[in-house]
Design goal:
Distance between the termini: 51 Å
Protein name: histidine kinase
Shape: rod-shaped
Strand content: 15-25%
CATH topology of the largest domain: Beta-Lactamase
EC number: 2.7.13.3
Number of helices: 10
InterPro entries: 2C_sensor_his_kinase, HATPase_C_sf, HATPase_dom, His_kinase_dom, HisK_dim/P_dom, HisK_dim/P_sf, Sig_transdc_His_kin-like_C
Strand order of the largest sheet: 2-1-5-4-3
Membrane topology: Multi-pass membrane protein
Radius of gyration: 55 Å
Helix content: 55-70%
Keywords: ATP-binding, Cell membrane, Kinase, Membrane, Nucleotide-binding, Phosphoprotein, Plasmid, Transferase
Structural class: alpha+beta
């Protein structure tokens, strides 16, 4: 329930429940109003019918029997009108059996409902109330016997009411319409808010996925823009911190490289100086031996200089379709004798593969990697050179069963002059990685429980 979408959905659900409760209350009040209105209409109909009966009693006072002439019938209309005079919204009249003798405001005085009500009143000899219709056209019919001198005369009244047209029903309908409109508007607003928030969040995620350090554009939404501004500020600070760390790492790497280079140069120079001093102080034989040693140290310095130049120069790859069997054979052949002298076995498995690469650069990288592996191994150890192909590219593994990489140098393994062997100069792995990088590949160290393992990876389809 912590997401904004879930909270807004909960808010709308609460609004929906409140609207339903309010709608239920309005409907309940409407039903109560309808019930009260029905009770009032029954009372009005009964009082109106009783008023007709009293008017008839006054009209027929002193008559021994009901005359059957036309004048008497016309008088009954006046009786009905006088009886209904206090009730302007009530219709009614006087009937004899099923014959209407007088009717006020009744379109169909011979209606079956009126006949049934008057017959029941004559049979029961007292007031009878009937109800028919529904909310749209409800009618309450009251019928009462008029008594002597005419025993078959009955008065009736009708109170009609359209509950759907009353002021309260209109008010209730308006309230329900307002509630429905509120729910629709709130649903539209919350949906628009959630969708807008989702779109803005997706744009931020896309921007960060494309370039984590890029400055995100503002959206025009004040609250959301505050978050984006804070994120842009954090990104800028992070970029500056990364730049400082990269600069510090570069300086640290340069310091380690300078220290290693000074060590590699100082040792041969020191040996040259000692040999020169010894030769100057000795006889011809000692001078000859000293010159030989000086030449050897000079060759060592020249070799080191050549490696440095090779490391600094950016190689230009010349790619071609190369057989890995031929490439592995060329890498293995020069080292067979050296490995056999140390009791180390070299195993290769090219799986008959070929790949588009620069044979010279790859061979130089493999030579450095294999030579390092043989130097690290002891008697009865094995160095393996294998290749495998998958859907994403080519993998070349160089593995050995030696003591592995010392934990202290694993993080700086590919930096120049970083080595775990006293006799090493720490340039082999750095040069090998540059040779592979120049072809668009990667060279990494894979941690292994036994020995060392390096992985060359060329992506793509050859």
């Amino acid at each position: 329930m912590r997401s904004l979408r879930a909270r807004l959905a909960l808010l709308w659900s609460i609004s929906l429940i409140a609207a339903i409760i309010a709608g239920g209350l309005i409907i309940g009040l409407f039903h109560q109003s309808a019930t009260a209105s029905l009770a009032r209409d029954r009372q009005v109909a009964a009082r109106a019918c009783d008023s007709i009966a009293r008017a008839y009693g006054f009209y027929s006072a002193g008559l021994g029997s009901a005359p059957q002439d036309e004048a008497f019938r016309k008088g009954l209309r006046g009786v009905a009108a006088f009886g209904l005079w206090p009730f302007p919204d009530v219709a009614g009249g006087i009937v004899s059996g099923s014959t209407a003798l007088a009717s006020i405001g009744v379109d169909t005085p011979h209606d079956a409902g009126i006949s049934t009500a008057t017959a029941a009143a004559l049979d029961a000899d007292h007031l009878v109330l009937r109800q028919r219709g529904g909310f749209g056209d409800r009618a309450v019919i009251a019928a009462c016997p008029l008594g002597s001198p005419a025993e078959d005369l009955a008065g009736f009244t009708i109170v009609r009411l359209d509950l759907l047209r009353t002021p309260f029903s209109k008010l209730a309908a308006g309230g329900l319409a307002v509630l429905l409109l509120f729910l629709m508007v709130s649903a539209w607003f919350l949906t628009r808010l959630v969708l807008g928030f989702s779109r803005r969040l997706a744009a931020v995620e896309a921007g960060l996925a494309t370039d984590p350090e890029a400055k995100l554009p503002l959206t025009g939404e004040p609250d959301f823009d505050r978050l984006i501004a804070a994120l842009n500020g954090a990104t800028a600070r992070l970029g500056r911190a990364r730049a400082r760390i990269a600069e510090q790492e570069k300086l640290a790497s340069l310091g380690r490289m300078a220290a290693g280079l000074a060590h590699e140069i100082r040792n041969p120079l020191g040996a040259i100086r000692l040999r020169a001093e010894s030769g100057l102080a000795g006889d011809a034989a000692r001078r000859g031996a000293a010159l030989d040693r000086i030449l050897a140290e000079s060759a060592r310095l020249e070799k080191l200089t050549g490696k440095l130049l090779g490391f600094a120069a950016a190689p230009a790859p010349q790619t071609e379709e190369a057989s890995l069997a031929h490439l592995f054979g060329e890498a293995r052949a020069p080292l067979e004798e050296y490995a056999a002298a140390k009791g180390v076995t070299i195993e290769t498995n090219d799986r008959g593969l070929s790949w588009t690469l620069d044979p010279a650069l790859t061979l130089r990288a493999l030579d450095n990697l294999l030579r390092n592996a043989i130097d690290a191994c002891g008697e009865d150890d094995t160095v393996r050179l294998t290749a495998a192909r998958d859907a994403d590219g080519l993998t070349i593994l160089i593995e050995d069963t030696g003591p592995g990489i010392a934990p202290g140098i694993a993080a700086h393994l590919f930096e120049p002059f970083v080595t775990g062997r006293p006799e090493g100069n720490g340039l082999g792995l750095a040069i090998a990685r540059e040779m592979i990088r120049a072809q668009g590949g990667t060279l990494v160290h894979d941690p292994s429980e036994h020995g060392a393992r390096f992985r060359i990876r060329f992506r793509g389809v050859s």
